[in-house]
Amino acid sequence: MNRIFGAFSNVKGTVLYRVRLPAPEGRYNDVCAVLVDHWLVYSYFEDGTSAGGDGTKGWRIVSVEMYEGKKPDDVMRSLELSSCSNATTDFTTYEQAYLIPYGVTALSTTSTPLGVTLKNLIVASRRHAVHSVPRRLLDPRRPLGKPSPSEVEEGLVTYDAVLPDDARLTLSHNYEVANVRQIMSAPSRLESTSLFLAIGLDLFLTRVSPSGTFDVLSENFNKAQLVLTIGGLALVIGLVRPVVRRRQLRGRWYSA
Length: 256
Known about the structure:
four-stranded antiparallel sheet; 12 strands
C-alpha cells in the first residue's frame, strides 16, 4: 500500500513535487515535512518491503532543493514573468535520502532576521529528544566521490547514507521532551541566534546558533583590557590636544 506526498503552488495549484511513499500497517500518518524557501525536507518510515526500495528497514529523511531553470546557470527574469506563467514551474530538482537512527515526530527549521545565518533542521524524535541537523549534512548535492575544489569551496562533503547520531547535536541534552507534535521557530534580535519552542506533553524552549555566535563576544573576552585601552587612548588624546592646538596657533602667527 502506498501514499502520495507532494508540494503544490498556492498561486496556481500546480504540482511542484510529488512522490509515492510506502504506507506500512499502522503508520499512515507518520510523514512529517517542512518547506522553507526552495528547500523541502520530509521524513517517513520504510518497512523494507515496498517495491522499488532497497530493502532497508528504518526511518528516512529526504532533502529536496529546487532551483530555477532546466540547466545550470539558466536564470529566469522574474520581472518579466507573472505568477501565473507556465515558466515559473521550469525548475530543476535535486533530492537525496538519508537514514536516521530514530523516529521523527515533528520537523522545523531555524529562522533569523536577515537570513544570513545557515539554516539547521530541527528534529523532534521518538526518543523524546530534540536534535539540530546542519543543513550541509542534508545537502542533496553532496558528491558520491571525493569533492572537487569547487564543491569543497561550497562546503559540500562526501555523501553518507546514514546521518550521524552525534550527542552534540541533541539540543535537549539529558532532558526528556515527550511526544513533541509541533516545533515553532522565531528569529531573535541577534542574526546568529534562532529561538524555537517544542510543543508536546512537555514544552521545551531554547536557542540555537547554526553558524556560531559571530555577533556575540565570547565569554573569555577580556573586557577589562578593552576598558583600559579605551581609557588610555582617551587620556592620550586629552594630553595631546592642547599641544596640537598651541602648534596650530603658533603656525598661524608665523604665517601671518
